[in-house]
Amino acid sequence: MTIEKPKIEASLSDALIPIVILITLLGGSVYLFEDNSSFGPNQIALLVAMGIAAIIGLKNGYSWDDIEQGIIKGISRSLGAILILLAVGCWLINWYLDVSGYRSNPYLLWLRPVEPFNVLRRQLPYLCHSRHEYW
């Protein structure tokens, strides 16, 4: 039988420590890696700040299951906004490709039922194309 520690509310300093560390690490990664900071150092900074926040939660008496449930609750609350941003991003990419001269055709991609034989028949010359000859 294990004795559970009482759960303590996070103090202001407990709440600010991960945020200050995250801002410091993000600033350091941008200072050190400049344009390349988004290829990995920023994600490492997020993981370090997340780990520090989890350690503070464990220090305050929360179990790992409580922390996992909090993570799941936070992600599920923000999922609607994430999906909206994803849809807007897809729309903007489609608009950008359309403006730049690449004509995507939603009728061919989404609205018409897929006809496997016709798709294969149209794609066969491209699949069989070698550099110097056609089959």
From TrEMBL:
PANTHER family, per database record? MALATE-2H(+)/NA(+)-LACTATE ANTIPORTER, MALATE-2H(+)_NA(+)-LACTATE ANTIPORTER
Q: What is the lineage of its organism?
A: Bacteria, Pseudomonadati, Pseudomonadota, Gammaproteobacteria, Alteromonadales
**UniProt keyword list:** Membrane, Transmembrane, Transmembrane helix
Q: Which organism is it from?
A: Paraglaciecola psychrophila 170
Q: Does the keyword Transmembrane helix apply?
A: yes
Q: Where are the transmembrane segments?
A: 12-33, 39-58, 79-97
Q: Does the keyword Metal-binding apply?
A: no
The protein in question is named Na+/H+ antiporter NhaC
